[in-house]
Write a structure and sequence with these properties.
The structure holds 2 protein chains of 2 kinds. By secondary structure, chain A is an alpha/beta fold. Chain A is about 50% helix and about 15% strand. By secondary structure, chain B is an alpha/beta fold. Classes of the chains: A alpha/beta, B alpha/beta.
């Protein structure tokens, strides 16, 4: 099943780097298991979304321009986040609309910049990564991944191939979890109330594990779970796919 | 009497009032979900609904890009039909035109159809100040007029009230018996209104759509009150936002298939009225028909190449129903007459960025609104654009508990992100500092904004003992 030697640069994202390095380690191990040659550019920091999301486009452009330079020679870039992938693929072209050289770079990068699950299914054409995980799992569609990138089936396809897994669907499974980047601190009460709805749906679906592809959503949901002592656990898809229990 | 202008104060504080009220939460949740479910069922019956949306979007794009042409065509058509056209640049101009028309008609009462534009220009205040009594005849608006409130929803203005609330309100104002039977409540309202339709010297409506080619004002409704307002009084005035035009009569079918289905999930509303001029010899209807075309900030929106897409809106309210934030904070939190995602877009456009600078931030940008929009307005994208306009054009107050302004913080952040060494050093320092806060891998409380807002309702995971950068360095370079 191993394809020809594919070379991919791994972009951990700032949140992943600082809070969830194990997500990166798991993603790298899954990619390698599938024969991908993984590299990591230590000059990387952030994609610029926090500034873009808050309306500071100049600041976002400065940070984004670095990403364009860092990956111009990469064959593929793989990212364990739908939101950061959206930033690059959807928002960079908008951000650089009036700077032709950067725009050209952004449109080039867009072609090779992939979210983790999308990369596995669409580029590597893999559905079964050889994982096993005998638990009840609900998959949460993060909004950028679902609505900006249209990635709905890829994560589910990968999950269904995991041995022993019981995949359950939540009611209103396309409902936002309430993270929303800076929304989470500008409207904290609303943000938490939305998380509670999501967590209730996960419990009602009988899930023990809530899995998603975005560390932002997961950090927010896990924070509410921990504060309220709920019997649920969050996990990034990459962590789950690395399991061989 | 209800409040005027854009409410000052913070939207998130107003939103928290609704959030803390279990009764309101249930009202918003159940009503919006019911409307959404009806919408979904209604769409399922229409093959090629996506194509209809695309076509409607193309048509609105066509109109908005050539609004000068279509407005002139519409005005000519109205006059050819025997109607009179009035142009209003501002709310004040529109109010004074309508007040003047009411006086000339000798009207002491004006019966009103449900119209969001009249809420926008605060027509009721102007009429009352001029000694003329406005009578809201839409059941929802009738309720709100008694309660002295603004609409909480574009299509279902009293969405936040239960039948018990309405019963109490009617008992207090109309001295009616206490009853929670919707049918009986309807009868009570009709009883109070019937006489008004016959007595009023003028009827006022909005327009759901206005056909440029034929000068037709199109109104859709379920209660029959709009047909009454526009036909029984001697004078009918239609107040129309200039963005309401569609090009041709033949295009009407597309919008009539989209609008009721998107709004309430109906194939058609109970009444669809096409009003093309005043009565002709041997016909029923008003002797005079006036159309007041309102700018009130729309032309300024048109001038903004990006934001003009917001003018495609046909006011179906589907984006409100789909919005998880609207459902939590309720319509009144948005501070003006238009609420939900579309309100967050058009309020800053029509009333100025400075007074509504928080609105574009009242969204998690999930995009559920765009999924249901019948003309596919890219609402999240426009909200992001407005956020940047807000930050560029309006002075930002320092957030409560923040050490520096948001802009300063973002500049510092960008500086760190441009210098990997600073970024990594920041990580090292934060790891050192968090020893004083973290217990068992979690932080329960921080007092510095914005993390203070995070820990209000959630715990914050501590930074991992070692970053991915550090992990990679150790694993890969020492291998």
């Amino acid at each position: 099943m191993s394809p020809q030697k594919v070379r991919a640069a791994f972009f951990i994202t700032c949140l992943g780097d600082q809070f969830f390095p194990q997500v990166g380690a798991c993603a790298v191990s899954v990619l390698r298991r599938l024969g991908v040659e993984v590299s990591f550019n230590p000059a990387q920091t952030c994609c610029g979304q926090p500034a873009f999301n808050t309306g500071f486009r100049d600041e976002a452009r400065q940070v984004a321009a670095r990403v364009l330079d860092l990956y111009q020679d990469a064959e593929y870039v793989v990212v364990p986040s739908g939101s950061c992938t959206t930033m690059v693929r959807v928002f960079y072209p908008e951000l650089f609309a009036e700077q032709p050289e950067h725009l050209r770079q952004a449109l080039e990068l867009k072609k090779k910049f992939f979210e983790f699950s999308e990369f596995l299914v669409k580029v590597l054409k893999v559905e079964d990564v050889g994982a096993s995980f005998p638990r009840r799992v609900a998959y949460h569609d993060s909004c950028h991944l679902l609505r900006e990138l249209g990635i709905e089936q890829e994560p589910r396809t990968l999950l269904r191939s995991v041995r022993g897994i019981q995949l359950v669907e939540m009611k209103d499974n396309q409902l936002c979890c309430g993270f929303g980047g800076t929304f989470s601190v500008k409207f904290p009460e609303v943000s938490v109330a939305m998380a509670q709805d999501k967590l209730r749906a996960a419990s009602e679906a009988g899930a023990d594990i809530l899995v998603a592809n975005d560390s932002g959503c997961l950090m927010h949901l896990a924070g509410v779970i921990h504060r309220q002592g709920l019997p649920l656990q969050t996990m990034h898809l990459a962590e789950l796919l690395a399991k061989q229990e | 009497m209800s409040e005027t202008g854009v409410q000052s104060g913070e939207i998130h504080e107003r939103g928290n009032v609704a959030l803390g009220d279990a009764h309101l939460q249930e009202a918003y949740r159940s009503s919006t979900l019911r409307l959404l479910t009806h919408r979904r069922d209604a769409l399922a019956e229409v093959p090629g609904f996506e194509r209809l949306r695309d076509r409607a979007r193309e048509l609105k794009h066509e109109v908005i890009e050539h609004l000068d042409f279509y407005l002139a065509q519409f005005a000519d058509s109205v006059e050819r039909n025997g109607g009179q056209v009035h142009w209003a640049r501002t709310s004040e101009e529109a109010c004074s035109i309508i007040l003047d028309l009411a006086r000339r008609a000798g009207a002491r009462e004006v019966v009103k159809a449900k119209t969001m534009v009249s809420e926008e220009i605060e027509l009721n205040h102007a009429l009352e100040a001029g000694g003329i009594r406005p009578v809201e005849t839409d059941l929802g608006e009738f309720i709100l007029q008694l309660a002295g409130e603004r609409p909480a929803h574009i299509v279902a203005p009293a969405i936040h009230m239960t039948r018990h609330d309405v019963s109490d309100l009617f008992a207090a104002h109309l001295k009616s018996e206490a009853t929670a039977e919707p049918e009986r409540l309807n009868q009570i309202a009709r009883g109070a209104l019937r006489e008004m339709f016959q007595k009023a010297g003028m009827g006022l409506s909005g327009a759901n759509l206005a056909v440029a080619e034929t000068g037709t004002v199109v109104l859709i409704e379920n209660e029959g009150n709009i047909r009454f307002c526009t036909t029984a009084p001697r004078v009918h005035v239609a107040l129309v936002g200039i963005e309401k035009l569609i090009p041709r009569f033949a295009d009407l079918g597309i919008f009539l298939r989209l609008l009721p289905r998107s709004a309430t999930g109906q194939k058609l509303t109970s009444y669809t009225s096409l009003l093309t001029g005043p009565r002709r010899a041997g016909e029923d209807g008003p002797e005079e028909m006036h159309v007041v075309l309102l700018d009130n900030g729309r032309i300024a929106t048109l001038a903004d190449e990006k934001m003009r897409e917001a003018l495609f809106c046909i006011r179906c309210g589907a984006c409100l129903n789909a919005c998880p934030v609207y459902r939590k904070i309720g319509g009144h939190a948005y501070g003006w007459v238009y609420s939900g995602p579309i309100g967050a877009l058009i309020t800053p456009q029509l009333t100025g960025l400075a007074g509504a600078r928080e609105l574009p931030f009242a969204s998690s940008l999930c995009g559920a609104c765009r999924d249901v929009c019948p003309v596919k307005i890219n609402i999240p994208d426009l909200l992001l654009h407005l956020r940047s306009e807000v930050q560029e054009q309006t002075p930002a107050p320092k957030p409560k508990g923040a050490m520096v302004k948001e802009r300063t913080a973002m500049r510092l952040w960008a500086w760190a992100m441009k210098h990997p060494f600073i970024y990594k050093l920041g990580g090292v320092l934060a790891r050192w500092g968090q020893r004083f806060y973290a217990r068992g891998g979690w932080i329960r409380h921080l007092s510095a904004y914005p993390l203070s807002r995070w820990t209000e309702g959630r715990d914050l995971p501590a930074l991992a003992p070692r970053s991915f950068h550090a992990w990679w360095r150790k694993h890969e370079t020492e291998k």
